[in-house]
Each structure stands twice: as C-alpha cells, then as structure tokens.
C-alpha cells in the first residue's frame, strides 16, 4: 500500500546493477522536460501512472498491474498525470510495459499521440475496462500474452497498425479509425518480443 511519487526534469531511471525495485500501492512518475522513464526491474506496484514531456517509457512489474491516471499529491511535489501512460507531447515516442507475473489492466488512456509505438506484454491477460472507456492512441500497437489469458481491448481505440498474440486465449479488439493488421517486430532493447 502507500504511494511513491517521482518527478524529474531529464529522466527517471532504475539501474540494472543490484536490480533495485519499487514496492508500493500507487506509483506516479513525471518527467517535465526531455528524458526517458526507464524503470525496468521486477517492481511490485499495484497502480501505475507515468508521463514524460519528451521521451519514452519503459517499465516492468512483477505482479498484476493497473494503468491509471494518478492525481497530484496535494501539498507535495507531484503534479499528477493526465492519462495512464503519456508521451503524447512529443511525437514518435515509445511506451513499452511488461507484466512479468500476472495481468495488465488499462483503467485510463495510454497515448503516444497519432504516431509512435505502444507495446504491452503480460503473462495472464491484457484488458481495457469498460468504465470510463479508456483508449489507446498510437501509431503501432503490439500486444503479447505469454501464458494463459485473453486480450480484451475493446473500446474506441485510435491505432494505425496492430499486431497481437496470445499463447492460450482469445483476442477481442475495437478500433475507431482505419486499421492495418501487421506482424509487429520486437522492440530492440525493450520488453516486447514481437508477434509472429
């Protein structure tokens, strides 16, 4: 339980040496200038909201994860996020989120604007809730479920190119503009292993 709020101008990083991790109920991260969010160890977070003004987001969680807008910390330093995951202030950026144990649930919007890439990986399912109708806005969306679980991303998403795979489950998806179905390559240096 509890909250961790991290704010920086030029990036938030988790080093690989010693594999430090964040353990909390809610994690909010905000980069206000040019810089990436690279928090990619086996974190134990329940709810995540992250935004960078000009950079990419790479994140790994080792339990079920909810993507949700995180409010400002009243009386504190954290100004809040306007979406669940957001790189939309600069075009062509990448969001790459992996849940290495459990499922991924989208409760709020995920956006890179109309270009860029969103890569979502989970072991036991990827779901977009119907309440509040969160959506994904991006150029290329790649989704991968590596175990037993469905991909149920069925709101009015705004994606140009989609590739999705589940090892043992169903795929249900809705898009609200023209859509190309294409094999999506692995994200070099990232978490997403690609679709075949």
Q: List segments where confidence is low: pLDDT < 50 over at least 5 consecutive residues.
A: none
Instruction: Supply the helix-strand structural class.
Output: mainly beta
Number of DSSP helical runs: 0
Percent in helix: under 10%
What distinguishing features does this structure have?
single chain; 196 residues; mainly beta; 16-stranded parallel sheet; 16 strands; 54% strand; globular
Describe this structure in words.
The chain is mostly beta strands and 196 residues long. It contains no helices and 16 strands. The chain has a 16-stranded parallel sheet that branches. The model has no long low-confidence stretch (mean pLDDT 97).
Summarize the structure.
With about 200 residues, this protein is mostly beta strands. It is built from no helices and 16 strands. The radius of gyration is 15 Å and the shape is globular.
Topology:
Blueprint: E1 3-8, E2 12-13, E3 23-34, E4 37-54, E5 57-61, E6 65-67, E7 85-86, E8 94-99, E9 104-106, E10 110-111, E11 117-122, E12 126-128, E13 136-148, E14 151-168, E15 171-175, E16 180-181
Parallel strand pairs: 1-3, 2-4, 3-4, 4-5, 4-6, 4-7, 5-8, 6-9, 7-10, 8-11, 9-12, 10-13, 11-13, 12-14, 13-14, 14-15, 14-16
């Amino acid at each position: 339980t509890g909250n961790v709020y991290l704010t920086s101008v030029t990036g938030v990083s988790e080093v690989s040496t010693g594999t430090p991790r964040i353990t909390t109920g809610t994690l909010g991260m905000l980069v206000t200038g040019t810089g990436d969010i690279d928090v990619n160890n086996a974190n134990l977070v329940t709810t995540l909201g992250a935004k960078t003004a000009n950079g990419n987001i790479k994140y790994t969680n080792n339990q079920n994860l909810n993507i949700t807008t995180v409010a400002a910390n009243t009386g504190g330093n954290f100004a809040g996020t306007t979406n669940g995951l957001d790189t939309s202030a600069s075009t062509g950026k990448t969001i790459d989120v992996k849940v290495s144990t459990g499922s991924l649930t989208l409760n709020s919007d995920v956006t890179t604007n109309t270009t860029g890439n969103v890569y979502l990986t989970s072991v036991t399912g990827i779901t977009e809730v119907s309440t509040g109708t969160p959506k994904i806005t991006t150029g290329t969306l790649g989704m991968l479920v590596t175990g037993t679980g469905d991909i149920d991303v069925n709101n009015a998403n705004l994606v140009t190119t989609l590739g999705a795979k589940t090892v043992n489950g169903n795929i249900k998806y809705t898009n609200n503009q023209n859509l190309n179905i294409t094999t999506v390559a692995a994200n070099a240096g990232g978490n997403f292993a690609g679709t075949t």
